[in-house]
Amino acid sequence: MIWRSPAGSILPSALLFAGTMAIAALPPSAPTIAGTTDCDVPAELMQVDHELLLFGQRLRAGEPIKIVAIGGASTTGAAAGSADLAYPHRLQETLAQWYPAIPIDVVNKGVPRQTAQQMLERFPSDVFAEDPVLVIWETGTTDAVRGVEIDDFATALQNGVNELKARSIDGVFVDMQFSRSTMTVIDFERYLNTLHRVGDVNEVNVFPRFEMMRYWSEQNVFNFDGVTKDQRAGLAASVYQCIGQHLAETIRIAVQ
Amino acid sequence: MPPQSRDLRLDFFRGLALILIFVDHIPENVLSYFTLEAIQFYDAAEVFIFISGYTAGLVYGRTLGSHGVFYATAQILRRAWQLYVAHIFLFVIFIAEVSYTVSTFNNPMYNDEMRVADFLDQPHIAIVKALLLEFQPTFLDILPIYILLLVVFPLVLVGQRLHPLVVLVPSFFVYVVVQIADLSVPAYPEGHVWYFNPLAWQFLFMVAAALGLREARASLPSVRRRALLPSAVIVIAVSLVIKLSWTIHGIWDPFPGLLLKELWPVNKNNLSPIRLIPFFAAVVAVATLVPRGVPFQRSWAKPLILCGRQSLEIFCLGILLSALGHFILSEYNSAVITQLTVNVIGVLVMFLTAKVIDWYKSMGREPTLPAVPARREHERSVRP
To answer: B233 with B28: CB under 8 angstroms?
Structure first.
């Protein structure tokens, strides 16, 4: 069973239309970033369903904004070699360019190889202690790798959402990374569906990293085959940069 | 084939379940929109376990009646052994696939998190755990519960012949306790549990076995199926509307998912009542409305019936083919047309194999056929 709307599936035109409208509604002043990698994705992957209320308020009031990115190895940015090359830092850079008058700080709380439940247990110390306006929760990979019971995964996500809502903190989920070769041995599908459904039921946006990376893989935008070790780190950094920028863009759409 | 005793519905629906299990086991498969899961809360797993339980009651109940408890026990354990060997065979193939993938892995973005093959660090433990059925990689999880249920089945059979409630009352009690207390059976690696919780799924198997065992069915209070039919149809219709709305909602977001917040997630590990009740309703409806033989003697039903009759071989083949199909889709091309081709070829291979096995078995059987009474023939060909 596939709950996500896969790229190019049934009703793509309706989704495309919705996505196009959302992008058309952007302020004309939104500057494009110089020196970006060419990693555009179909408009339907940039679709945003739910508004980020608190983030929007702070933005309009011109108050300082703190974002916490909690997640796993791909949040730490280990593959690229440094946290400055990870997507949370790219997110901060992009938002800073768009909203230069507002101090925006993105705190990186990535710890490799943790399940959603283990991340949830870090919420008091790593998330709430920072007093964030928005929490980016990148999760699901370790749960899928370890084959955590799907109900336990759903419960951990739900509890996390409840805790954020109780404190009126905005949240965005980031789903797993896509890789052809791992797909053959890890069953991501159930975990992806669960993550997307928890977002759907709770009206929390889910950033479709998995579908984006699949799209790049199919379009051959990033190719890890036959490159040296150093080049691979550079390639990983480019992927993180694209993720960070697209994430910033969806956040901007979500506060319109 | 003895028309008086053969219930072709068993073969047909088991064959159908095997095909659906194959289709559902290919991740990211467009055809999985069109399996049972899309329209009902239960899926092919319930069908498979139910029919397995029913035929176990039917066939081993007869053996028990004609040859006594020791022979029936021996026959059941022999079947459990066959399933065990099949499971280990599938496990070896799984390990080969994982080892291959891991050793050719070169993408740094996943290195930290994708140490998929933690168990390859300790193969001596992983293999022993697999032999003990405690290690159940994805998709290799339905045979272990079937094996376990068969191992205890001689006792179940004796109990059910005394009176079905001797088995069904404790079985239901355990099922209810699991639902309330959320008990699960630990597996390997640490933190894992049996995907099909045997403490919950046993109830479906025991009910099916009681229905299949003639003596048990006779001593159950006689409920007229026709009287149950209207409520069964209502349950089926309501769950169809709800589940279909979820499926459409999953594809196209603006469509509302009815009662989604209230009912989701529906627990499969513990066979949530939301799955079980509509499934029983479907059993009542099929048993009442679908005749035993006639519709399945047409040529279109033949391939499914053959698959259902060779269930163990076709089940294993289906699991292998879905792994292979997934490998092709993820390594080379996952376009919709490739997905459909993989599905079609897989199903054809399953049909063809079932046909060949049937031919082979019939060749071996033919010379002795006249000497064998109809009932023995039936016993031999209906396999739990």
So the answer is: no
